[in-house]
């Protein structure tokens, strides 16, 4: 099983949106038995809460499921449990790297998957309110990530 973890600040906007989008793409490609997707936040403010209303509305409009998703905090065990840790911005990446654990997982910034984009961080819609822009970036980034995982692990 290949395990992918998306990380943002509070785990209610960006990372659960990315989790839902990648799960949707994984299911469309018939890879649900080979790829597991989760998300976490570096902060603890929203533990146990569902995705933000803006994230839910956007996912609903595209018929992408976020069933059973609840915010959780990133922890050191995630380094062992996940092959890929995808961070939404520099602060998230720095916070993940500051957690003591292992170096087993590959830490990637989402926007590094989209080198042609001018933005170098996924904006936080909790503050900007622009869930559409975030979806556009995450949808494109998840497509690139899934192609990369499929190639690296010889998945059909």
UniProtKB/TrEMBL annotation:
Keywords of this entry: Hydrolase, Protein phosphatase
Highest taxon listed in the record's lineage: Bacteria
SUPFAM superfamilies (alphabetical): Phosphotyrosine protein phosphatases I (SSF52788)
Active site: 8, 14, 124
EC number of the protein: 3.1.3.48
Domain Phosphotyrosine protein phosphatase I residue range list: 2-148
GO molecular function: protein tyrosine phosphatase activity
Matches recorded under InterPro entries: LMW_PTPase, Ptyr_pPase, Ptyr_pPase_sf, Tyr_phospatase_low_mol_wt
Reaction catalyzed: O-phospho-L-tyrosyl-[protein] + H2O = L-tyrosyl-[protein] + phosphate
Family from the record: Belongs to the low molecular weight phosphotyrosine protein phosphatase family.
Annotated protein name in UniProt: protein-tyrosine-phosphatase
Species per Swiss-Prot/TrEMBL record: Paenibacillus xylanivorans
The organism's taxonomic lineage, starting at the top: Bacteria, Bacillati, Bacillota, Bacilli, Bacillales
């Amino acid at each position: 099983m290949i395990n992918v973890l998306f990380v943002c600040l509070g785990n209610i906007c960006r990372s659960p949106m990315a989790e839902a989008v990648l799960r949707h793409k994984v299911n469309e490609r018939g890879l649900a038995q080979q790829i597991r997707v989760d998300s976490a936040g570096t902060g603890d403010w929203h533990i146990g809460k569902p995705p933000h209303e803006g994230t839910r509305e956007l996912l609903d409009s595209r018929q992408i499921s976020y069933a059973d998703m609840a915010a959780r905090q990133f922890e050191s065990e995630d380094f062992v449990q996940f092959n890929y840790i995808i961070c939404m911005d520099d602060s998230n990446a720095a916070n993940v790297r500051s957690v003591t654990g292992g170096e087993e997982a590959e830490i990637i910034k989402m926007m590094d998957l989209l080198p042609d984009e001018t933005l170098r961080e996924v904006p936080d819609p909790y503050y900007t309110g622009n869930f559409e822009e975030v979806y556009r970036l995450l949808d494109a980034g998840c497509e690139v990530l899934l192609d990369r995982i499929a190639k690296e692990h010889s998945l059909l």
